[in-house]
Queue: 2 jobs
Job 1
Amino acid sequence: MIGTSRPMIKACLNSFISAHRHVKKPAISSLRYATTDEGSKSSRTSRLPNGPSLEHFIANSSKTTNSATSQTHDPIDKIPYIQKSALHGHGKKVYFDVYGCQMNVNDTEIAWSILDSNGYQRTTDTTEADVILIMTCSIREGAEQKIWNRLNQLRVLKRKKSVSTKGSPLKIGILGCMAERLKSKIVEREKMVDLVCGPDAYRDLPRMLADTSSGQASVNVLLSLDETYADIMPVRLNADSCSAFVSIMRGCDNMCSYCIVPFTRGRERSRPIDSIVEEVKILSDKGIKEVTLLGQNVNSYRDTSESQYAGGFESDSATHLSAGFKTIYKPKFGGRRFSNLLDKVSQVDPEMRIRFTSPHPKDFPDEVLQLIQERSNICNQIHLPAQSGNNEVLMAMRRGYTVEAYMDLVYHIRDIIPDVALSSDFIAGFCGETEKAHLETVNLMRQVKYSFVYCFPYSMRGKTHAYHRLTDDVPEAEKARRHMELSSVFREEVLKLNQAQIGQQQLVLVEGKSKRSVHDLAGRNDGNKKVIFTNTEVPCEISSKELKPVTPGDYVVVQIVRATSQVLHGVPLYHTTLQDFSKRQTTSQRYCNASTI
Ligand code: SAH
Ligand code: SF4
Ligand code: F3S
């Protein structure tokens, strides 16, 4: 149902497997695939000494539960007790199951890149897999329940396989946030799990898989202060897509009281700008037309990797928070910020759309807003997670703002970027939420008029501040009712917003065939709204007589003729480029303004 749940991605990584074979090793030195050999050249700030230390053995021991705050990156071919050949996959087939947020898709691409360069193959058929790796999410109880259900199915498959292959049993691994949250408890509850690997330990996957051959489970859930996988070129799961994800930072320091993410993803750290720009260049060379910059707090980005930017204590180098917002942590100084990164990334290819997710409302200084407004390829779309429209609830959530400060930011953003599409996250039935507080959230939703909303019933998570200090006192049925009400108010409002776009000519990046009709194509407008339009040949450019079919990755101008709460329907008019469309818009706006003076 639209707007009621973040799309839980369960991507069977089909059809794309062949593509990674054609991905060339980039010519640049700082961005490379992880191979055991290259791993040793990795320029890391913290390293292990040549000999194994105590930490080394703890990290690599079987059936251990580790949650250190810093991890070093040891070249895996130097691990003393494992033969280099054991780290090689020898063509073993890996199947990936991906759940959770976009970061999990990108993390799977990183994990796959690491295994790919260590001699593993990918399969899209569970029955022929030697290894099944499940990329998991812990955000709500329901997200974890899905994984337990999946493990129940896989238990049957594993049993069958061990009978039919006599001695080379299927290996099952849990990766990601649930691995980090539950650690070796997973293996205690589900004995058939062979491997538990946290979000900062993917470089260790070849060793961990080798380790499972002893019949023991292998667990590495060390969190890191500096791991960003900056030197690993992810191997894209969907090579047919004209869009790609690029991770720019990991972790979260915000500690919202309901949220498990700081505990599963660790401390905030940013990937160096240059490695991000290099990856974007490679994607542009491959014809990618849209890049989404990813992070748990994407706009808190702060690259301190180069000493001249590392920062002192001058007040002007402190993080500029949006007016009326505060953080639970002390101000951070120095570093190249999100506006510097957006500036650089958006200059790589003016025909490439740039989006970013998930940001926090506290980190929207004017530099970022101005840049979004000025650069035609940075989409006019901002996710601005509100969570609640009531000040007591916001305080209990430790969000660091009031609803008034949030609304001031909304007005300020709309002043600078008038046609911006805003989206948000909301939680229904947080601890202590009264009916009055809920109605204030409904009110906020009506006031802002979001183009998209993710809404979740509150799910208490262990370890969080709310778990220790607050009472989960809204009955489940009431949470469900409030959740439904928020969803239907959102749909009511967004229908009006979408209908107001009828008659507009919009720039659409074509994604492919529409799922609903073989005669239609689907794409996204600048605000990330889905646009469905007839699959027909259209002029090569605005005034051309020559017709051309419309294919994925093309920019076309679509006249919007109909709208539902979920999608816009339109008629394709002509092919264009992002820059031409934007010039035409600016000229017609100028013309419009002149004629009204
Ligand atoms: N860093 C991002 C979001 C990460 S989690 C941000 O701050 O926006 C995505 C969303 O999941 C959150 O915005 C919140 O709305 C929801 N969420 C997180 N913890 C939750 C919980 N315990 N119960 C219900 N929803 C939750
Ligand atoms: Fe969770 Fe808050 Fe961090 Fe988002 S900002 S990941 S909601 S702690
Ligand atoms: Fe889930 Fe972890 Fe993402 S908890 S939402 S997979 S950061």
Job 2
Amino acid sequence: MNFKKNILCIGAGYVGGPTMAMIAFKCPQYRVTVVDINPKRIAEWNSDELPIFEPGLDEIILATRGKNLFFTTDIQSSIRDNDIIFVSVNTPTKTFGAGAGMAADLQYWEKTARQILQFSGSSKIVIEKSTLPVKTAQAMENILRNVHSSTFDVLSNPEFLAEGTAIKDLENPDRILIGSRETESGLKAREALVEIYANWIPREKIITSNIWSSELSKIVSNAFLAQRISSINAISALCEKTDADIAEVARAVGMDSRIGNKYLNSSVGFGGSCFKKDILNLVYLCRHYGLNEVADYWEGVVKINQYQQERFTLNMLTAMFNTLADKKICLFGVSFKANTGDTRESPAIFIAKKLLEEKAEIVITDPQALRNAKADLAGIDGNVSFIEDPYRAAAGCHAIAVLTEWDLYRDLDYQKIYDTMIKPASLFDGRNIVDHRKCHKIGFNVYPIGKPALTHF
Ligand code: NAD
Ligand code: UGA
């Protein structure tokens, strides 16, 4: 079959896989290929057991794979045969050298640029899908410039999907942002990308900007979202000291239409692969440009998030008579949020490690994330086990800590759980999803976030 466009995505991760599946699903007239250097990941994308759990993803993969969606490790011919290339490789925080712990590690990004240069035989549109520091497109252009007769137009098209709702977000995004150079060929490339999205997204939601605004908007969006969570979490600490209730405060504040009610759920802290890394990258950029006050302001968002996780663990220690040694604690949830198996930067992993340092015995339960959690905690000193059934996991424990807001944990039979636990039994609700009064009535000592504790002492 002759396809109208041949589209490639380099990087078959949490973004590359679902994003390309959606394009293939909405645009049967295009041939979409996803390539990765990791053969195991590609084999999983080609199997019945996809490498990531995402509600609704299996269905669209089944509908498109082998028809107009292909997963491969053949980078050379993929680059050669496609004219539109999305790059969605990982851009983690640098762990070495200058900027370690703050700056974005651009090595995967740069390698990709060099591969595009090496294997291209014709002109290409190269699209930044990864989240990148502002001005990265310039580096991409410099690598691709003038080496052979082909031309390369670099666009920025950041991805705003959230894990757990990726398919919904891709199908009906708030906006699609495309940044380009304002040259004739830049604008032509931008139109080619607009045309792809316009297959299912209303034109008024496809916005364009200069390339640097686009790169920066992505990081700033994440910084603003994370800032709201740190703001409400900071106030949760004050609520715990003053008998105010964070849910009541969030409700009252969020009903102001200028503020809005989203991202005001107080929690054990935000996790995920991006918020922290993107804010640290923003902080690094600001310092690079000598904007130390701006850098300090945003760094505070990450510091409060760290504080919230540490505070939660310390509250557990204090509530359990200042010793956790040999106490058995069950963690309800280990993914960084509900509806994903992703544990990257999950507060639950941080808390598990802290509890193990206190010599507690940990039992971790989660409906989707146990495989990742096992890998994260492999080689860590201490007694840790993984049990999928929450009832079996909690049996014989001194305490439960609810760390992920899976619906499953709202609706458990807490009387049945309480009956199998060691007394006094404690319930630390790091997501405020459990019925606290009911659990207190059952006999638990209940410690929510940002609300007075309900104890029997
Ligand atoms: P990921 O680690 O899940 O996937 C990246 C993939 O790129 C990996 O499979 C890796 O093997 C592959 N890769 C690296 N170098 C390669 C190369 N030279 N050739 C081919 N493949 C290569 O990462 P992710 O979560 O999909 O994130 C990708 C980018 O998207 C990041 O910049 C991230 O900040 C951004 N982002 C992520 C999310 C999210 O929800 N995870 C949302 C929006 C934006
Ligand atoms: C976030 C953004 O929402 C996406 O727009 C963005 O594309 C993505 O980062 C990215 O660049 O990677 P994600 O991290 O998948 O998406 O998930 P979120 O729903 O934003 O949650 C992030 C963390 O904040 C989770 O740990 C969640 O539990 C926590 N959170 C969220 C709260 O603690 N309280 C809230 O009110 C909302």
